[in-house]
Amino acid sequence: MMELQKRKRIRLEKYNYIQNGYYFITICTNDRKQVLCDKDCIIIEEDNSFVLSEIGDIVLMSIGNIEKSYSGVNIENYVIMPNHIHLLISINKNAETSISKIIQQTKGLVTRKAGFPVWQKSFYDHIIRNENDYYEIVRYIQMNPLKWQNDRYYLVGIE
Description:
The structure is a single chain. The chain has 3 helices and 6 strands. It is α+β, with helices and mostly antiparallel strands. The chain has one domain: Alpha-Beta Plaits (2-Layer Sandwich), CATH 3.30.70.1290. Strand 2 and strand 3 form a beta hairpin. Helix 1 runs antiparallel to helix 2. The radius of gyration is 16 Å and the shape is globular. The termini are far apart. GO terms for molecular function: sequence-specific DNA binding; transposase activity. This is Transposase. InterPro entries: RAYT_transposase (IPR052715), Transposase_17 (IPR002686), Transposase_17_sf (IPR036515).
C-alpha cells in the first residue's frame, strides 16, 4: 500500500501569529507563472521595481489596502516580483488580526479582482527576531529585483 506524503508544516509550531512583531512574508503565484510584471519584466532602475502588469497593479493596490484595513498593521517594505511578492509586515499590540488572516484576505481580494486563481495555496513566513535580521530582510527585499535574471524561474512560467 502506498503511503501518502505528509504535508510539511510551514508555520512555526506553538507560535502566536497575532502577537506583535515583524514578519517577512513570501507569496508565490500559482505554478510560479510570471503574471505580476509586464511581458518583458522590465526593471525600473530608479527604484529597482518592475513594470507591473494589470494583475501586478491589483497586487500593488491590495498591498496599499492592508494598512487601511487593519489597525495596528504596517507594511514596512515590499517588492512585487514577476512570480511572487515579499512583504515585511509589522503588527503592534493593538492589532486584532493575525498574519494568516491578512494574507488570506489580501490573496482573496487579488483573485476576485483578477478573475482567476493568482496565488499558490499557502505562503512562507519568517519571524524577525532582532534588528540585524530586520535590516538583512530590508536589503534582501530592495535587492531582489536586481537578482531576477539569476532566478531559476526567470524563463519558466512565461505566458
